[in-house]
Specification:
about 45% strand; 2 domains; mainly beta; 5-stranded mixed sheet
């Protein structure tokens, strides 16, 4: 690769990179067919995030791939996480292992079900044929 972090080159001019239609929120992925790095929408690969907020609500919209979210910190209020519309067979892995609940709870909801947690746990929600299922 012709790009050197901290060097004077540009990743876009490297011989093993092929960019097209650049847009915010894209990630690099390797294409074994072309043997080049290319830009793709973030939903085309594993989406991972870490939520350190002590309070507030979140809405997650699944794509067709895995979504991993880790919650850390000490809660200062109850939190609500809404699982929004999703592509078939998508899923969310949610980790509350490092969360200090401090007497508060995190509620997972999609408008049909509601699960509340007030203790460290790891859970998975799978969307099968348009229906969210909780898998422990």
């Amino acid at each position: 690769m012709g790009f050197s972090p901290g060097g004077s080159g540009s990743i876009a001019t490297s011989s093993d990179v092929s960019f097209s239609n650049l847009a915010s929120g894209q990630v690099l992925t390797y294409d074994t067919t072309t043997q080049k790095w290319k830009n793709v929408a973030a939903s085309a690969g594993l989406l991972a995030s870490k939520d350190t907020a002590a309070s507030g609500n979140s809405t997650f919209t699944a794509g067709s791939t895995a979504n991993l979210t880790k919650f850390t910190g000490t809660l200062s209020a109850d939190r609500v996480i809404t699982l929004a519309a999703a592509a078939a067979n998508s899923y969310f892995d949610l980790s509350f292992i490092d969360t200090v609940f401090n007497g508060f709870s995190v509620t997972i909801s999609n408008g049909t079900f509601s699960h509340s947690f007030s203790y460290p746990t790891f859970i998975k929600y799978v969307n099968i044929a348009g229906t969210w299922e909780r898998v422990l």
